[in-house]
Amino acid sequence: MNSIKTTLMALLLPTVLGVSMGAESSNAPKVLVPPSTSPAAVSTVQPAPTPDRDHPVSSVPDETKAQRDARMGWWRDAKFGMFVHWGVYSVPAGYYDGKPIGGIGEWIMNKGKIPMAEYQKFAKQFTADKFDAAQFVATAKNAGMKYIVITSKHHDGFAMFDTKVNGWNIVQATPFKRDPLKELAEECRKQGIKLGFYYSQAQDWNNGGSANGGKWDKAQEHSMDDYIDKTAIPQIKEILTNYGPDTPAVVWWDTPTDMTKERAARIDAVIQRLRPGLIQNNRLGGGSKGDTETPEQHIPAQGYPGRDWESCMTLNDTWGFKKDDQHWKSTETLIRNLCDIASKGGNYLLNVGPDSHGDIPAESVKRLAEVGAWMKVNGEAIYGTTATPFGEELGKPTEAVDGYGKKRPASSGKVWRATQKPGHVYLIIFQWPKDGKFIVPAFAHTITEANLLADPPAYGFIPKLTVSQNDNGVTVSGLPEKAPDAIASVIDLKY
Ligand code: FHN
Q1: Is 370 in the pocket of ligand 1 (CB under 6 A)?
Q2: Which residue, 490, 482, 483, is CA-closest to 416?
């Protein structure tokens, strides 16, 4: 009897320990065995899933391709999301002591070397009195965006949520006294879009995270580990558990300065315990690759074949509100960026920087509505699509300047882009042909039909398009003289 007991204990103990302790300490696949399982049943436990060799890089080690596809499905289909940088920095809005401070708005504390006590005074003027979650979410939806990622805490350490960890937060330190993340979570649920949280896990100028570019105030001297354990991890637990089981849908890390492998593992363990499989970007640090590449302020020349990726970009030159920044991108640039990104298999995370009242600048709202109008007609060529079946349209990589003035390889092709989904190839044309014909490279399937996605009333008649194809290419004929859309017109090729 005793020997049976010992055998049972030997079989069950590692499993029980693996579930209760190992969950936070190891990334090994977890094999769950109910404590009542007999030794015979233990041997029938399923082997660990075969790792996905096509997508070896993921925040969930050892998941299969099917598991990964299921986990990333909504995100891949969404294609277009709203990034929101909102915080106390929107009060100084680019000015300190009456002087303009250079650089991006949310970095004003660092760039202006503002002492902690001085910076914290700005919270008193953060009224957020115009903030209306319903309208906010509607602005994203109206633009055709399918998810929002908002700064729950940026590098200034200010929590835009009801944290119990310290008083440096929107509920306790501002006249607003409400939790906008809670209101946004409810509205996103109501309006059917996803909500993700950005969290600056490493850099925190008020709570002792590594201060990039040096510390400028004695009050910032803290131990990084102390900060990780006593501020970051407890706050991450709050944002993972206080907003419903569907929120956050994504966690967006940033600037992993001084994030050792060990520190990153401590944070990841919390994610895997509280929200296993939550989509994470690639900026946790400590060598972790996350689920998504995050090119910033540029669109890579070829995308990232085999990887999920998301270009995050500003609408003007700043992420956080800066009153003097009126350098707005045109609607043409925004729509073409979205097409370019989708044609390379990526997502576009386009930023807004609300002011201290909670208003999204009118220039942003106007452009987003224009992108939304285009998406209402042409969204079929964007949502749920994958990268171009061609590639020649991207041209040879050329050098371009990104949103930070840095030289980067970019696509030289400016005439058209393509996306696809089963049974469809979408030709997205930026420069409409004058001769009624559009020719693209050879395509493997037989095309049965070609239509413009634009509303027929644009012409008063439905143009009859014809297609001929051979080993050299596909020719679409019968195109009307005037482009259906001056920015980007879509031909839907069915096969
Ligand atoms: O330093 C930040 C910056 O303020 C902004 O949040 C961007 C958005 O991707 N990320 C960092 C720079 O890479």
Answers
A1: no
A2: 490
